[in-house]
């Protein structure tokens, strides 16, 4: 039982291996962090999404453009919210 870990509300970093099978780094991860860096995250998480998205985009080029634009605007809005 890790009582000490339960008592401390602060998330302490844990030494773990990067979840990218092509990466051999160990890193101090905080919370649910699985990868040592953004590159590894992209290497592993991105292809799954883009593979599916690419196929869909091929079949719905106009719709994909619309969604891309909406997504961009949404992100921009969010960013502005954070700044204020
Ligand atoms: Zn890594």
N- and C-termini, Cα separation: 43 Å
Percentage of β-strand residues: 5-15%
* Ligands and ions found: zinc ion
The 3D shape can be described as flat
Query: What class do helices, strands and sheet pairing give?
Result: mainly alpha
Question: What secondary-structure arrangement, pairings included, does this model have?
Answer:
Elements: H1 3-7, E1 14-17, E2 26-29, H2 38-59, H3 61-83
Antiparallel strand pairs: 1-2
Helix pairs in contact: 2-3
Bound molecules: zinc ion (ZN).
Description:
- The model has no long low-confidence stretch (mean pLDDT 83).
- The protein has one domain.
- Strands 1-2 form a two-stranded antiparallel sheet.
- The protein has 84 residues and is mostly helical.
- It is flat, with a radius of gyration of 19 Å.
- A hairpin with an 8-residue loop joins strand 1 and strand 2 (26-29).
- The relative contact order is 0.09.
- It contains three helices and two strands; from the N terminus they run H-E-E-H-H.
- The protein is 60% helix and 10% strand.
- The longest helix is centred in the last third of the chain and has 23 residues, at 61-83.
- Bound molecules: zinc ion.
- Residues 18, 20, 23, 25, 35-37, 40 line the site of zinc ion.
- Zinc ion (ZN) is lined by residues 18, 20, 23, 25, 35-37, 40.
């Amino acid at each position: 039982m890790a009582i000490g870990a339960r008592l401390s509300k602060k998330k302490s970093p844990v030494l773990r291996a990067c979840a990218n099978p092509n990466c051999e780094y160990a890193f101090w991860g905080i919370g649910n962090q699985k990868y040592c860096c953004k590159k590894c995250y992209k290497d592993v998480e991105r292809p799954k999404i883009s593979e599916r998205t690419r196929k869909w985009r091929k079949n719905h080029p106009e719709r994909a453009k619309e969604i891309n634009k909406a997504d961009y605007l949404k992100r921009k809005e969010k960013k502005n919210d954070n700044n204020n």
